[in-house]
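Researcher: I'd like a candidate sequence for this fold, 159 residues long. If you have to choose between options at a position, lean toward the conservative one.
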């Protein structure tokens, strides 16, 4: 098929070949995005570890993972699971939610007093925090949909 031909002008096998080629491009772009997320989370963990002045060995021990595995995460060669991220966050004494956002497991939420309080509560597990934040966000979305433009009610009551 030439570049001027449209896929609809081509035969069935050429259309399938064109579709496969397009899917290949989409998969390639998705792979690049995942690779970037893995690199980002690894670089973020490394910067947090260095900022906290914790050695790779110390963090690996407190997170319950091997030195080589943690090193591979930091270099972007491995993508850690949510459970491993939680253990790393605990070892670094940072929010697991921050790591989940960096890793692409969660969408970043706008900060508020409620979300800050939930995230900072040491008595809640990460799962409990996530459930509370999900419920809170659903209530906020519901409230946002129900908001109607304010009218000047004072003038209607004065008459």
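Model: Candidate sequence:
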């Amino acid at each position: 098929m030439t570049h001027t031909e449209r896929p609809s002008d081509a035969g069935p096998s050429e259309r399938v070949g064109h579709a496969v080629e397009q899917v290949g491009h989409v998969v390639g772009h998705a792979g690049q995005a995942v690779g970037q997320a893995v690199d980002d989370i690894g670089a973020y963990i490394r910067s947090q570890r260095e900022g906290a002045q914790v050695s790779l060995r110390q963090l690996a021990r407190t997170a319950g993972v091997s030195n080589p595995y943690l090193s591979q995460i930091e270099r972007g060669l491995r993508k850690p699971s949510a459970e491993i991220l939680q253990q790393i966050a605990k070892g670094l004494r940072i929010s697991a939610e921050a790591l989940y956002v960096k890793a692409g497991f969660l969408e970043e939420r706008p900060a508020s007093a409620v979300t800050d309080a939930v995230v900072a509560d040491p008595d809640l597990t990460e799962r409990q925090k996530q459930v509370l934040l999900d419920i809170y966000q659903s209530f906020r979305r519901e409230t946002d949909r129900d908001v109607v433009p304010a009218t000047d009610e004072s003038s209607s009551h004065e008459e």
